[in-house]
Amino acid sequence: MSLHEYAGKKAPKSILENIPLLVSDYYTKVADVENPAHQVSFGTSGHRGCSSKNSFNEGHILAMAQAVSEFHLEKEHSKLFIGMDTHALSTPAHKTTLEVLCANGIKTYYAEGFSYTPTPVISHAILTHENSDGIVITPSHNPPSDGGFKYNYSDGGPADESITKLIEKRANEILRNDLEDVKVIGLEEASERGLLVAYDFVTPYVDDLVNVIDMEAIKNSGLKIGADAMGGSGLAYYKAIKEKYDLNMEIFHDTPDFTFSFMHCDKDGKIRMDCSSPYAMAGLIELKDNFDIAFGNDTDFDRHGIVTKSKGLLNPNHYLAVAIDYLAKNRDFAGLGIGKTLVSSSMIDRVVKDNGKKIFETPVGFKWFVKPIINKEIYFGGEESAGASFLRKNAEPWSTDKDGIILNLLAVEILAKTKKDPGIYYDTLIEKFGEPVYGRLDAPANLEQKTALKNLKPEDIKQNTLAGEEIESIITKADNGASIGGLKVVTENAWFAIRPSGTEDIYKIYAESFKGSEHLKLIQKEAQEIVNTIFSNK
């Protein structure tokens, strides 16, 4: 995918979303239930869509909320926590969901003042309240036009496929039956019946941070911190953290802007609140020298983006390796391993081995780390897309969903205690283990093409070599036996993986080489040729 002329530039007014039309379409457009593109579909992190494309409308939310209500009641959970981010479609979807949950007699806890709540805060709330589950209304870092709906089970994490398939199937049944099974009541009545409970999510989460991060070390360091809320759901959280722990922190973009007009465009020219993208993060990168360390988050605050004076925006893989190494050396996590996705850097493998830990390699999706975290098999679970979480200081679970807040604060702790920012810390890992070069390419793919890639088999790869090296393995299943939803090819010094996106009409080629950038380009070229051959044969 070539670089768009707007990449890294402030979003021009001409591309800003028409918010009134978007919200109007939410209420007025109706899905064609026979059109797969209009149906409820849970990817790696819930259902996502756009009201103007008939894939995220009131009917979808009514159906999904009813399906979740029935599942919640079947499991006899006593309460449900609900959060939303600052995408324009999140507010109407949040209201619709509340009306259905309460109509089904479910005691629902929502943020006071109908304000915003990050994904990790919902996970934290579930884990600190027995017999509860949750919903987060968010499409994560997707463009302002999109909406999303995610269900978190009673273990606090994204529901696994066995649950989401049930919810997806039931929601589509409800849509086909013209929503006849949906129960709805007004919010005033729900409140009067004690089913709708205003809840302070901010204070318990912020107060509890001392049990996962060395907040005292951060405070005493006096480090000048830049916190970019990026107009997301954690707007109130950085302010509360700054005040609670008396930090030298400057906060940016801490008011909602449903068009996200302050953003710089991503590499494809779209507004995308991706804190791992150097193009989307260009604004904060420009300010890097004003701070000892800075960071940002995507819209639901489950991802992290670390900006240092030494390196600018850190590659997510680099920071994962740093965090894993630092925690292994600065917490008592004896006997615990770490979880990584198959498309994360092999530098992590070397760091983990050096610390005498065990590695659990999984398909893409944080849901694969939930049980290992709950069962205390791993102290850290992280994805290459800048999403991770880790255990409390006492080795108990903090969250079983990605938490961009604690990963950002951990970067400050690392600088405060080691006197090295995470970029410089990563240089010490390079000196010890060598330097990998990592890249990801995105390209358009329709539903048929994405399906073909998702169902790839090892025998579909006819080559014996990759970029001049003999292919050692072709992987379609992770260590836990689960399908990776694509394919990974490994040689002695490199690897690539092909995977269709679960939320956008694209596929992704991940690749890494320990032999330099030219070798990486050759790997990417050959991987692209393999994809083209697969598409031409379909």
Provide structural commentary.
It is a single chain. The protein is α/β, with parallel strands linked by helices and 538 residues long. It folds into 3 domains: 13-200, Alpha-D-Glucose-1,6-Bisphosphate, subunit A, domain 3 (Alpha-D-Glucose-1,6-Bisphosphate, Chain A, domain 3, 3-Layer(aba) Sandwich); 213-433, 3-Layer(aba) Sandwich (Alpha-D-Glucose-1,6-Bisphosphate, Chain A, domain 3); 437-536, Alpha-D-phosphohexomutase, C-terminal domain (TATA-Binding Protein). Helix content is 34%, strand content 21%. It is built from 17 helices and 23 strands. The chain has helices spanning 19-28, 58-74, 90-103, 119-127, 161-176, 187-192, 202-208, 215-221, 235-245, 282-286, 316-330, 347-354, 370-374, 404-418, 422-433, 447-454, 517-536; strands spanning 42-43, 46-50, 79-84, 108-111, 132-137, 146-152, 196-199, 225-228, 249-252, 293-297, 304-308, 312-313, 337-341, 359-362, 378-383, 387-390, 437-444, 465-466, 469-470, 473-477, 483-490, 494-500, 506-513. Strands 1-2-6-5-3-4-7 form a 7-stranded mixed beta sheet, with helices on both faces. A 5-stranded mixed beta sheet has the order 9-8-10-11-12. It has a 5-stranded antiparallel beta sheet with strand order 17-23-22-21-20. Helix 9 links the parallel strand 8 (225-228) and strand 9 (249-252). The longest helix is centred in the C-terminal third of the chain and has 20 residues, at 517-536. The chain is globular, with a radius of gyration of 22 Å. The two termini are 22 Å apart. 53% of the residues are buried. The model has no long low-confidence stretch (mean pLDDT 95).
